[in-house]
Amino acid sequence: MSEHASTTTADNHSHGDGEHHGFSHPMPVWQLLAVFFALIFLTILTVYQATFDLGNFELVLSLFIATIKASLVILFFMHMIHDKPLNAIFFLSSFIFVALFLGFTLMDAHAYKDDIELKEIDSPRKVAVDVAEPVQ
Amino acid sequence: MSHDDAHGGHGDHDHLPFLAHHFDDPEQQFDSGKLGMWLFLVTEVLFFSGMFCAYALYRSLHPEVWTFASQFLNATLGAFNTGVLLFSSLSMAWGVRCAQLRQRTGLVISLAITLGCASMFLGVKAIEYTHKWELGLLPAGAYESQFLPGAHHAGLSSWLYVLSAVPALCVIGFGIWYGLAMVKKDKQTSEIAGPLLVTALCYFLGVFIGVAFESAEAGEHGGDHSVAAHATDDHSGDAHEDDGHTTDGGDDHDAATDEGHSDSGDHSSDEPDGEHSEDQASHGAPPGKLVSTEGDGPVVPGAPREAEIDQAGGAGLFFSIYYCMTGVHAIHILGGMVVLTWLLVRATKDHFNEEYFGPVDYVGLYWHLVDLIWIYLFPLLYLIT
Predict the structure, then answer these.
(1) Is B300 within the bounds of a domain?
(2) Could B13 and A70 be called an inter-chain contact, meaning their C-beta atoms sit closer than 8 Å?
């Protein structure tokens, strides 16, 4: 076990020296600050936008702003811009399933009537009750 | 975690103490962990999507309930909390950078700021929650109508003291710990206890900010204590009628309650009482304990209509969804604080460097996801007009 470990570290060392910061991508400070201030600006924008009565468009607009904010967070704060494509595919695929989940549920929700309409039928049971009552 | 393995394979492993034996090199270890973390975040997204689904379903079926109930959320506090979370995300991302550049002090400071922001967020949330509990803005079943007369909520809720007990104990505990570390001149311990003490204090900072915002908004509206009175600002035509109601609103209302419900305290049922609600509506919204301190957004025109929505019981379901979504989000914040504390301890031990910064990065991913969910929650819950 220890032999194996020592050989792997030796290997790593010999080839790792050339690319010392090989797999880390420290974000420049200006980028972090720029993203932060963009997010704050968009937050102020979305609060300001809510003071107008835009009807149904309001929901679309606030979700659009939220999605821009989310994209900034994912791309820069979560480093997806430097990440492996596989990770991005995994993560973004979750939103496909969320869309399916919400989409089908909402489609289904509006496929029904508000109230149950009871249908008047002359069922044998009803007749039986009518007959039974006078006896009692 | 990797420490156990690392201790097993010591010797040559000394310069890479956290490389688990089953990985070829630190990069492979990092990539594996990162893939795992992204997968975990996928499950988190899907988990929250259940609640977003409930939200979308109910809002699409009853948009008017959302417009009515959302006015009780304080958008100023929500916006402030959004800023706090965004700032904590910035400090977290900066912390990852510090870990990658082997800046030990920078990492400790970043983690301390992140923890402090998380705690402040919870402090503001505590104010929001307790204020609503006091007003009877509770989940379906416990929701109390806002158009019934009731004790006016003034001052701090007693629930706030209950919620603040744990942070208060933390302040005392971390304070003593920090004091002892300073006396013993134990630098490493004081670097853990100090940030934790600041974190616990930040909860109370959040509480004070929350109280300040709440009372500032209450002051802005002056003597207006009801939505009916508040509505007069926007609809001057109704002003005289509503003024009349504010004075004899109590009597007016008693008549209504005698017919329907025994008193306001018993009105915890969310069953729609059709007869009563129409009755209530025809009375023209008796001003009860509906306070305009929450949210200065435009009040929906037509108070009678509001009373109808209120009485129909749907608002309780809005608050069920509100408490569920924000509550689960707050639990995620608490969980994040636990792992951030773990990172803080490891950061003071100087565990992280350009070859081994995985844990900071993974916790950062989780923390940004929690921020991401709030980015959607804030406009969806607080900013409905």
Answers:
(1) yes
(2) no
